[in-house]
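New to this. Please check this record:
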Amino acid sequence: MIEAKSPAFWRATLALCCGSFMIFSNLYVTQPLLPEFQLAFNISTLEANASLAVATLMLGFSLLIYGPLSDALGRRAIMLVTMTGTLVITFALAWVPNYTSLLVLRAVQGFLLGGLPAVAIAYMGDEFSKKAMALAVGIYISANTLGGISGRLFSGFIADAFNWRASFLFAAGLSLVCVLIVWWALPKSKHFQPEQPKLTKMVKDLFNHLKNPLLISVYLLGGLNFFIFINQYSYVTYLLAGEPWLLSSSFLGMLFLTYLTGTWAASISGKVALVLAQPLCMALGILFLMLGSLVMLIPSVWAIIGGLLINSFGFFFCHSNITSWVSRQAQNARASASALYLVFYYMGASTGGFYLDPFWRAWHWQGVILGSLLVFLLTLGISLVLWKKDPRTLSELA
């Protein structure tokens, strides 16, 4: 097994982090461009948001395939092939003739983007020791946040300097570098035990996970948190692009630097879980989400930025603990369990806009915050129920 802080650990972690960085920079590259798409294609806010929603939706569906398939065929090949396909689609997006073509390609891209996140945690579970995995998961989630930040940041600046098509070209060049690093650095699996690819078994594994009340509870918790968190960012771009702020795409892209607190939160989540039970860590993260949302009611750009910083910390602190907790709770078909969590996670991302849009139209930004707090109260309750059922810390489990 790969031990923590060994040369093999750092090489494998580097590869997975580069892959994660690429996936999430491509997934979120369109988010600062939503106002640009509205102007370029003469579409509504909800239609513009579809460029993100369709990619996250297809990513979620793809996990139902990649997770079980990797239990049968292995992890590494699926990650490499889907990353290469993503690179090709990203380049093609720069040349779309209309918005319908953009949505179709984003759907295909979303399906390919699911390959790495569906199996990366399971790869760690196969190849890393328990201690090494606890450390690697936090670093890996940090790379998720850095990828999300970078994709949004460079797309905003490049769109202002050139146009939105150039943002996709830059994303393709960055993706090429990441693909080459992963092909070179990711070790071949040594401890993976393949299973025959039987459809009935794949379906049975998924249903077994869904019948586990602990797993289904945390799936809902993570999905509903992301349902709100990611779509708050979409609506804050509409808020700040309008009166009285009229902020540019570059500045809107810079809003996603607030993810840096999430990077830090993910990196410390494993250490905190040695002291506090993971469900209690989840509850703590949700309390931060509620606090950040309330701060964003203050009518100031700086208050909104402060609220986003708090929200990012809370969300990724919670998400990192959920990711590790799911892998620990699954007694078999670990990739399927992790993939099913991500199905709920990305289904939340793709549908949250439909939930928040009526609040936006009825009460503008105050409505978005109201809708957010209602959902966070629900997820806080779920986390506290889980704490009663699983009050042990990671140090007590060692």
Notes: Residues 53 and 350 are 4 Å apart (CA to CA). The two ends are 17 Å apart (CA to CA).
